[in-house]
Structures are given as C-alpha cells and as structure tokens.
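INPUT
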Amino acid sequence: QKEVEQNSGPLSVPEGAIASLNCTYSDRGSQSFFWYRQYSGKSPELIMSIYSNGDKEDGRFTAQLNKASQYVSLLIRDSQPSDSATYLCAVNTSGGSYIPTFGRGTSLIVHP
Amino acid sequence: DAGVIQSPRHEVTEMGQEVTLRCKPISGHDYLFWYRQTMMRGLELLIYFNNNVPIDDSGMPEDRFSAKMPNASFSTLKIQPSEPRDSAVYFCASSFGSSYGYTFGSGTRLTVV
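OUTPUT
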C-alpha cells in the first residue's frame, strides 16, 4: 500500500508568520509531487508542483523536496488569514500509472 | 476555458433511487478522474479514464457504481441503487497527461436520505 501521510492539524500560525506544512510518502520511486489548497466547501486547487530535489519558489510559496528522506514540504511566507484552508499533498506513485495518491490534508489556520 | 464543469452542484435523493452525476472536462485534457471525498476517508479515487477509455476502476466501491465516458467532453458517474453511506462530495478532475496536476470541478454534494 503506497501511502502519503500528513498531520491533520490544525496548524495555527499568526498573521505574517511562516507556515510549514509537511508530507511524507512511502513509495521511493515517486517522481512527481503536488500541493493543493482546499477552502472549506470548495474543490482542491493546484498551487505547487515539484519534480526534483531542492526548493521551488512561487511568490509566497516554497515547495521543498527531499527524495532521500521521502518528504515534501510547503512553506508559506507572510501568512495571511486568506491562506486558512486545508492543504493536500499528492504524490505520483511509480509502477506505470503515475496517478497521484492524496494525503488526508493539513488544516491551516492563520489568525490575525 | 470554463474549467471542469460538474452538475448538479447538490443532489438530495432517497435511498434506493438512481443518481447520475455529470462532468465536462477541460477541452484537450486526455485524463478524467472521479473522486469521492468524506471526512472519514478523505479524497478517494474511484475511477479514471484515458482518452475516454476506463483504465482503473478498482476504487469503485461496489457494483452499484458505474461510470462512462462516451466522448472526450462528457462523463457520468451513476449510483443505482443509492444508499445513505454514499453521501459525500463527488469531484471530477481532468488533466493533460497523468504526471501533471489536475483541475478539479466544483463537485457534487450528494445526500442520500
């Protein structure tokens, strides 16, 4: 069973702080990694993808990938109340289909 | 592009009735996915299609569920007969290639009473 694990939270951070969301995966052959944001009552929205080790920055978001340790992180700098949402990690499994497995998500609350 | 379009947005039905959920993927996308989301189980993949052909339906919970994709611009997920435990939000998503991120539709919130 190929698994993607996230702490369900909630993770509570003050406005302006850095929020750090973590995700571990079991399939060592995974090659594609995604972060989705899901507001309450809405559908998941792709915000970041990363395919190689290291950091990838997009505005206030930074995705970090460490394949040796099998984890991927999402950092949100200068957190805003509008960032309050559930963040889903998705990891493409190896073995032919490359269909992502989703984690259960981490709830983030940014308080003013 | 209008994105992935799902209908209806909400569906309330009585146990035993047939339910049909509809999805129009983004034009040009060759993969279509049906997911179910509940608090208990999170986001579960039910079935996915590549170029209108069902590839993996191992996530379909039982024979009461069926899905079709008669052409590149339309797919349905049918539940017959429906049961209260089918109550969930059902999402359709599409992508160009399987190794890239998905675009999700707005979802259908199904309540079976």
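end of record. Chain B touches chain A through 18 residues (CB under 8 Å).
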